[in-house]
Design goal:
The complex is a heterodimer of chains A (about 260) and B (about 450). Chain A is an alpha/beta fold and about 260 residues long. Chain A contains 9 helices and 10 strands. The chains are: A alpha/beta (about 260), B mainly alpha (about 450). Chains A and B meet through strand 2, helix 2, strand 6, helix 4 and helix 6 of A and helix 14 and helix 15 of B. The structure holds adenosine-5'-diphosphate and magnesium ion.
Chain lengths: ~260, ~450
């Protein structure tokens, strides 16, 4: 299989507070893969994800996405690369006062006619697509509600619909289910799984619970203090590895 | 590339260099000096006043030329004294505390030593400050006097938890209470408080009130001056309302785009943007601090005294600055999450603003605009005081005609009643709108 992302010697230092958040991280993500990032909070998972689409500027190192160097891309090239990388978030990051439909459509802003988008005008096709995306995540009837009227699980579905709107090659998810209850969490994870298997979208997601990672991940990459401490299949994580990732005092808990 | 220590917050050193060490202490000392300067002012005021009243009416007490150096040096010494012996108000304000080198409360000998040394060091400090090769937190006069002033935060674990004395038994507590008492006394004298005037002025006032309550509204629609130089109350009222409306509407339209230029999270991505941000913020703050009454003075002489255009412009400018500032604070406090999400999908920066920022700020913009409308309508009623036009023109006209016309006070009252009615109606309307959007 081909590489979709190649990360080489990635370093991120937050100037404010002088934190070394990522220390010489190198890895590759193959096309069609379902990769799970594990690690304690503060281990650098969010930083790694945000470096890939340069929401955060890496301090050093290279990131190659589908043969193109993200770190050297001009702002225009970066926009074009970002269109192919969708992202969903722990806190959903919807515009709360806008309608669900507008939120979904905003996933399309990289593609649409900029002048028309300035006056909130979208092509008929885009609106039909947005409705289709909402249909796919099972909430078409909520399209005209304000985003903050929805429950957490529904909001995350809107997040997924917004990501689907991009027709991405890569879906990055930063702890997509941490703010949700276990049952809802599984339904959200199943949408990710579905995108991965049916639409051939490569998925990179950070997760809090090992049990979720075991259930959905094809490959696991564990971070600790900004360094990779484990890379391999979920089955390889035994008690010893677990303590290495989560620290001596940790106990594994099950999310059903 | 630098290689900082591994992960976690590397705690910044508490005091980085000696500028860092001296900054809070410098400000603390300046504050103390200002307080003593204020005390000196008060004392001189009391002396002059009571001298004039009780000692010599014809030869008022004056500070001689040599008095100024005495005042300056005296206040400086007093500031040093409070600084060397106690935790002065300035030190308290900047969270500083005086301790010995053993980090315990200083002894009396140490305090006296320190006071004398500080006097000495005042002369040579600037030289020694830059030449000191010791630790940054130890300044020269400290090491000389075996005592240091350091941030309280650094003492948390050191000082044994002694039972603190109640505030009225501490030097600082007593000092502050005396300071407040003195301020009250001074304020009473300076603002010429005289409750007895309320009684002695009663008979005159009640006569005027009688005239005032004879409210005249005969010029509500009829022009005051038949030659057309002065118009009716309703004419000026319309002028007033439109002045406020014009200033609020156009001010909002201008402040809306400008507020983005003064928002750090929008502009802080390039040096040019940062420059614009700083300039805009400075302009907003500078203009906002000038009352629209003062701005109106400028325009009244420019476009004509009594011309409502002058008042409108003054209101407009103040509105743009005040709303621009308020709006930009709203822009800065938007939830960054949605902006991140929209940017991550490949949107342009201005698209992020349109789809991410604007929906978040619209409700507060409307609320601020209504609030500004309330302010502008009030200001428009009195801006005629400096020639800004509007209903105030009539108010001050009639006030100046007292004595010439028997019903002048009644006319004043008529205008006042009209103002109250209009302001009340406008407040009611904006309140209802606020309810709707809130
Ligand atoms: N904006 C920031 N400024 C300074 N330090 C940050 C910032 N964001 C994250 N960090 C620090 O970087 C490290 C990694 O954080 P993060 O990537 O958010 O970890 P995770 O997502 O695994 O919880 C943490 O130590 C965190 O405190
Ligand atoms: Mg995180």
């Amino acid at each position: 299989m081909e590489d979709l992302i190649r990360i080489e010697n990635l370093v991120k230092i937050y100037e404010r507070g002088e934190v070394l958040a990522l220390n010489d991280v190198s890895t590759t993500v193959q096309k069609g893969e379902f990769l799970v990032l594990l690690g304690l909070s503060g281990s650098g998972k969010s930083t790694l994800l945000r470096c890939i689409n340069r929401l955060i500027e890496p301090t050093a190192g290279t990131i190659v996405f589908d043969g193109k160097d993200v770190t050297k891309a001009s702002s225009r090239q970066l926009r074009h690369l970002r269109r192919r990388m969708a992202m969903i978030f722990q806190q959903f990051n919807l515009v709360k006062r806008s309608s669900v439909l507008t939120n979904v459509l905003s996933g399309r802003l990289g593609y649409v006619n900029p002048a028309a988008s300035a006056i909130h005008k979208f092509a008929k096709q885009d609106i039909a697509d947005a409705m289709a995306c909402l249909e796919r995540v099972g909430i078409p009837e909520q399209a005209y509600k304000r985003a903050d009227e929805l429950s957490g699980g529904q909001q995350q579905r809107v997040g997924i619909a917004r990501a689907l709107m991009q027709q991405p090659d890569l879906l990055m998810a930063d702890e997509p289910v941490s703010a949700l209850d276990p049952a809802t969490a599984h339904s959200i994870m199943q949408y990710l799984e579905q995108m991965n298997q049916e639409d051939d979208v490569t998925v990179v997601t950070s997760l809090h619970f090992l049990s979720l990672a075991r259930r959905y991940g094809a490959r696991i990459l564990a971070l600790k203090d900004g360094e990779i401490v484990f890379e391999g299949s979920p089955a390889e994580i035994d008690k010893v590895k677990f303590k290495e990732i989560y620290g001596e005092d940790a106990e594994e808990v099950e999310v059903r | 590339m630098r290689t900082p220590k591994k992960s976690k917050y590397v705690k910044p050193r508490p005091i980085r260099d000696r500028f860092d060490a001296i900054r809070p202490r410098f400000f603390a000392f300046m504050l103390d000096w200002m307080i003593w300067g204020y005390i000196a002012y008060a004392v001189m005021y009391f002396l002059q006043r009571y001298w004039w009243r009780y000692v010599d009416f014809y030869n008022p007490l004056k500070l001689p030329a040599w008095g100024w150096p005495v005042v300056i040096l005296g206040t400086l010494e007093m500031a040093l004294l409070t600084h060397a012996f106690t935790q002065s108000p300035g030190m308290a304000a900047f969270r500083l505390r005086l301790v010995g080198t053993d980090l315990q409360d200083p002894t009396w000998a140490m305090r006296i030593h320190r006071f004398l040394r500080m006097n000495l060091m005042l002369l040579v400090q600037p030289v020694l400050f830059f030449q000191s090769k010791r630790g940054p937190e130890r300044l020269m006069h400290d090491s000389a006097a075996t005592g240091i002033v350091i941030p309280i935060a650094l003492l948390k674990d050191v000082i044994p938890t002694k039972k603190p004395r109640p505030w009225f038994l501490t030097y600082r507590g007593i000092f502050i209470v005396l300071l407040l008492a003195m301020t009250f006394w001074l304020g009473w004298l300076v603002s010429k408080m005289a409750p007895s005037k309320l009684v002695s002025g009663w008979s005159y006032a009640s006569r005027i009130w009688g005239e005032l309550f004879d409210i005249r509204l005969n010029y509500l629609f009829a022009d005051v001056n038949t030659k057309g130089l002065l118009f009716s109350i309703s004419y000026y009222m319309a002028e007033t309302i439109f002045m406020a409306l014009f200033a609020t509407a156009l001010g909002t339209l201008l402040a809306f785009p400008l507020s983005f230029l003064a928002a750090r999270n929008i502009m802080g991505f390039s040096p040019l943007g940062w420059g614009i941000y700083l300039i805009m913020r400075f302009l907003f703050n500078a203009i906002r601090s000038i009352e629209s009454l003062l701005i109106a003075v400028i325009f009244a002489v420019w476009v004509g005294f009594g011309n409502p255009f002058a008042g409108s412009l003054a209101l407009l400018i103040h509105t743009v600055a005040a709303l621009g500032k308020l709006f930009s604070e709203q822009v800065e406090s938007v939830d960054p999450g949605p902006l991140e999400a929209i940017a991550a999908s490949g949107a342009r920066r201005w698209q992020v603003v349109i789809y991410g920022v604007i929906p978040q700020i619209i409700p507060s913009y409307l609320a601020f605009t209504l609030y500004r409308w309330d302010i502008n309508i009030r200001m428009a009623t009195v801006i005629a005081l400096v020639g800004g036009g509007g209903i105030g023109t009539l108010l001050f006209y009639w006030k100046n005609e007292v004595g010439r016309y028997a019903d002048a006070w009644g006319q004043v009252a008529g205008v006042v009643v009209a103002i109250i009615a209009v302001v009340w109606v406008m407040d009611y309307i904006s309140g209802r709108i606020r309810e709707k959007i809130g």
